[in-house]
Design a protein that fits this description.
single chain, about 260 residues, alpha+beta, 2 domains, nine-stranded mixed sheet, five-stranded antiparallel sheet, about 15% helix
Length: about 260
Amino acid sequence: MPPTSIPLFGLRSSDGAAIWASVPLLFDYGDRNHRDPWITNDRFEPSIPVRILTRLMSMLQARFSIMLAWLALSVCSQALAQTDHCSQPTEALAATNWESIKPSHFQFEAMFSIPVGWVGLDHVFGTGERVQARWRSAIPFLVPTMVQSFPGPNTMTPVQNPRPVFYLHATEVASYFAAFDAGEVRLRRLRVRRDHRELPVSKGITTFTFAAGSPGRFLVPIAVRRLSQTLMEVKPRDRLAPGQYLITIGSQEDDGFEFEINCSH
């Protein structure tokens, strides 16, 4: 009695020969004298290729489970860190407090308040623009992206608050500059690389859509309020995610006041 074949991973030809690159799983319910070369013994155990494939699948499943567990642990640890250090949002200060800011020695300064006093943000300057995704130039109508680099992978001014309130202070003369205006203040999110941070300063990847300026996904919505001739209040409209940020004044994208949202410290 001819064997009954149940192909699981492949097919067999009419004469019972295995098709190349197939891995069938066969069972013989008839003549025990008929021995199929794909069956290892009379107990109908899976063939060697099937066992190898099963072992590989088990290994992949185990690694996938480990990756899921590691991801869940990372998310939980970040959530706990946010809860421990980022649970109290900062409120805007009363006029009696922000009027105590000392006169600025620079054209513009950015700062925020903590219980022990005022903390100034570092003024950082870009190290130059460079071309990213240069390979697009080889394709008609595609253009590369221009990015501005900033030194270091992070700033030395961590802000342990997802809703910080910043104050921009200008000298009496600089306060009349067109750049020192509520509509000219921007909060930008920086992209972190191994040894530096960067900000895209061009939009569009085709010759028809290319334009100067940062893409919208790197701009953070903010609320800006003019407190006096020399002082403005800046605060994000939503909770800031952990990362590197830059406050810019005017149309300049190669310098600004840097800070980091870090609730794990």
